[in-house]
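Board notes (copied after class):
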Amino acid sequence: VHQSKMDFFCKLGYGKQDICKVLENLGQEALEDDVLKELIRMGSKPQALENQAQPSQLKLVARGSCSTTPGLKWLGEDGSDSSDSLRPIVIDGSNVAMSHGNKEVFSCWGIQLAVDWFRERGHTYIKVFVPLWRKEHPPQDSPIADQHILEELEKQSILIYTPSRKVKGKRVVCYDDRYIVKVAYEKDGVIVSNDHYRDLQNENPEWKWFIEQRLLMYSFVSNRFMPPDDPLGRHGPTLSNFLSKKPVLPEKKWQPCPYGKKCTYGNKCKFYHPERHRQAQLSVADELRAKTKVPLALGKEEERRQCSP
């Protein structure tokens, strides 16, 4: 018996010395519950809990090596998303930068604010599209601010330049909006822009539905990137459901009936009746009809029995 109790509490993770002390104090015939209570009173803990209580040692990472922390891991060129529940984000860089600069200055700081907002939410697939000529020295008619941010985002594989070139002194620019919609459509992601892309909606009916359902508009309030809480209107999904692949449906909350037990609507009442939770919700008139039909039916059966030979 002593050995069986020792094996039982050793499997639970307690030390043999503590088990022997408790068995000596309580005796060999002590119940297992009493032994366990005594071990807890003595302050003895299983080895698994003691290991968890000890602080984990910090691991030193060599300079230049990649960190394994998911929060600090950036997306590579493979396009794999570490979080399967969040949608990819495709940002219209020109639209965001001009909005932050009040349509007068191409403000790269606005792009950085938008990228940081989605990073804090946990999105790992973030792409920003900007025309290639924004990389050059800015002309006088279109000034640019904080141009070094574009270089930093390009090194992080977040910013992508759409192609452009000069032919006989004239700049030939590719349509960057088509890149934005195409990548977002293929990745089943979200487009961040205040542009409606009406010309692209007329080109492709599939793009039309996608732009209507996956376009996330925004505002800048005191250098703060703020998308709406209801991207598709009051009756549409919330912002968290809009940005996630698996939306969480809210629980249906029933409002209690203001009339309580005096309500005469029965099953037609749109409010919640806790007293009718396990009962068939019949109206008062239907309940009275059901009660009157029962004695009438019993009376007719008795008359038939008396009349029958």
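Comment from the instructor: The first strand starts at residue 89 and ends at 92. The mean pLDDT is 77.
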